[in-house]
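>> received
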Amino acid sequence: MHSRELTFTGIAEKHPAYPYAGRARAARLAAFVGLTTVSAQLAVRLPFTPVPVTMQTLFVVLAGVTLGARDGFYAMLAYVAIGFAGAPVFAEFGGGPHVLLGPTGGYLVAFPAAALVAGYVSGGLGGGRIAVLTASLCGMALVLLSGASYLALISGLSFTRAAALAIVPFVAGEFVKALVASGLARDLSTRGF
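>> returned
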């Protein structure tokens, strides 16, 4: 019993933040789940596509580049799981399995992988502004490709036609969001997020 106390005391002395590290990490993951939820509600429907324009991908890639690949993945996995369970976290306060099986399901299921890729690319390139821009574009491209592929699969459209509905209308907006991410990532990092 005495040796256990000494071992724990030794850990606490060497790592003074140790008792709070798990809570701080959970808070950061929860913050990105919340930010992605709020950004999903900033949805604009376009008359020529079943996919609304949202701000979600901005926070998907920011999760990867600010939390790191692993925790960004976990944050977005939690977001998708919460929505799958029925919480109204998806665009237009949607939630439940039917949303993931609908026309936007391909985008949503790609969120964890996109955060993982964005975090990995950003870290691999050094985490500077250009690295974050490149990482954000990679993550967003993955989301768009997944969304178009799934839309083609469930609708019976050719990939070319699905891409015209699910990729082309969003490219310019995704580039702008990637630029915003490259600016925000540095601000979040300097604030210790």
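>> Residues 85 and 138 are 28 Å apart (CA to CA).
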